[in-house]
């Protein structure tokens, strides 16, 4: 397969409309002369919530911001990543919480619905970010976050166990069996299912959860239960307990990783978050696109990480300056890249040799070239539990079409109930 740069791929993605009214000046310097002005004599504090991996880079640029804006302090509060979204939703309405918080884009829909997040005026920076990243943080023509990284899953191959480049799911199983290890391939399903990791296979049958709009966003029209979804369900059943047993609910994501690290399989469907563990084990690995099971391209969900602005921030202008003209710079986005090996959302940073020279990062980028932004609309919150449960049941031997149809009806009912 011909390799293409990630930037070129991302630039080809549809771009949701985003306000670009007032230019914010250059974004390649932490302190551009045309940045929005703030009262120098007035003291102010910005509170930023991040997790431990991002804290060092944000603290460093926060010190620079304080130096450039005397009287202004940046308080970086470190939290567990999984706690940031829920706590942001509960604390902001009462006037508490941070001015800025890091978040994955798929929480944006519910943040907007509950009124806790404010739109951000990106200005000229919107044209410097990859369209897919801006689209992921946009709804109804407005941007609700500063994206900084893009991630997706791929097929990781242990080069000591296989040299094959499978083009289809059948090729993958064959290559895996030829390696003579315990598992031909590893995909953590677990007792609750894992639709995030199986979605590329589902999409290869032409099925998505919701209908896509022309601008690359998702409508609230449910399509998961259509004919293409039923075809995927039937195929999924053929891979489980009553089929070839390649997929197994007893195999969780953590167990799958452990087995791959112990070299009990040549292939593992996973994401860049496991790269540090591969490096610690000194495994020689290659990242490739996930093979198709249904004849169409396997399209993984693309997740975008970014920073959001509280709707209750008392220093919104100051916070926007910090977001756009500091966190949105090449320097900072490369520092954040060093913490997680996720492709920067800023095209200038994504084109840097630090990024393009990393073969694993580029492997994931190629694996995500046909990816779809994970739906961020509020109805998506009603999907995951039913979706995962149905997949686990089918892998465990339940009748595929009936189980899938019931799942779709349950999702639709839950969405209506949630309003």
TrEMBL record:
Domain of life of the source: Bacteria
Residue segments, region Disordered: 20-39
Alphabetical list of SUPFAM superfamilies matching this protein: Periplasmic binding protein-like II
Keyword Signal applies: yes
Keyword Ribonucleoprotein: no
Pfam families: SBP_bac_8
GO terms under biological process: maltodextrin transmembrane transport; maltose transport
Signal peptide start and end residues: 1-19
GO molecular function: maltose binding
InterPro entries: SBP
UniProtKB keywords: Signal, Transport
Any one GO CC term of the record: ATP-binding cassette (ABC) transporter complex, substrate-binding subunit-containing
Family statement: Belongs to the bacterial solute-binding protein 1 family.
Protein name: Arabinogalactan oligomer/maltooligosaccharide transport system substrate-binding protein
The organism of origin for this protein: Microlunatus parietis
């Amino acid at each position: 397969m011909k390799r293409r740069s990630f930037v070129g791929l991302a630039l080809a993605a549809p771009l949701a409309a985003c306000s670009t009214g007032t230019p914010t000046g250059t974004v390649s310097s932490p302190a551009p002369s045309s940045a929005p002005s703030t009262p120098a004599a007035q003291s102010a504090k910005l509170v930023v919530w991040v997790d431990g991996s991002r804290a060092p880079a944000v603290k460093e640029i926060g010190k620079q911001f304080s130096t450039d804006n005397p009287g202004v302090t940046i308080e970086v509060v470190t939290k567990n990543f999984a706690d940031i979204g829920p706590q942001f939703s509960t604390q902001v309405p009462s006037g508490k919480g941070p001015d800025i918080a890091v978040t994955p884009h798929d929480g944006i829909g519910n943040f907007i619905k509950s009124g806790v997040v404010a739109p951000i005026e990106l200005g000229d920076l919107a044209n410097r970010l990859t369209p897919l990243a801006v689209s992921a943080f946009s709804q109804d023509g407005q941007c609700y976050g500063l994206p900084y990284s893009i991630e997706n899953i791929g097929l990781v191959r242990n080069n000591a166990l296989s040299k094959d480049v499978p083009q289809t799911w059948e090729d993958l199983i064959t290559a895996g069996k030829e390696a003579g290890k315990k598992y031909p391939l590893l995909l953590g399903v677990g007792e609750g299912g894992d639709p995030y990791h199986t979605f590329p296979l589902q999409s290869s049958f032409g099925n998505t959860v919701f209908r896509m709009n022309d601008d690359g966003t998702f409508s609230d029209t449910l399509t998961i239960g259509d004919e293409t979804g039923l075809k995927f369900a039937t195929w999924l059943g053929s891979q489980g307990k009553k089929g070839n047993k390649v997929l197994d609910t007893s195999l969780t994501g953590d167990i799958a990783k452990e087995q791959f690290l112990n070299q009990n399989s040549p292939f593992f469907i996973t994401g860049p978050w496991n790269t540090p563990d591969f490096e610690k084990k000194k495994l020689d690995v290659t990242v490739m696109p996930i093979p198709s099971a249904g004849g169409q391209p396997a399209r993984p969900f693309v997740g975008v990480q970014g920073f959001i602005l509280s709707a209750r921030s008392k220093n919104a202008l100051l916070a926007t300056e910090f977001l756009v003209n500091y966190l949105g710079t090449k320097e900072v986005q490369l520092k954040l890249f060093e913490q997680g090996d996720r492709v920067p959302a800023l095209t200038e940073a994504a084109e840097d040799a630090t990024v393009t020279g990393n073969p694993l990062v580029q492997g994931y980028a190629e694996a995500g070239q046909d990816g779809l932004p994970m739906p961020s609309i509020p109805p998506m919150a009603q999907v995951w539990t039913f979706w995962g449960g149905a997949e686990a049941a089918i892998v465990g031997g339940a009748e595929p079409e009936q189980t899938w149809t019931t799942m779709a009806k349950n999702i639709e009912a839950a969405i209506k109930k949630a309003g």
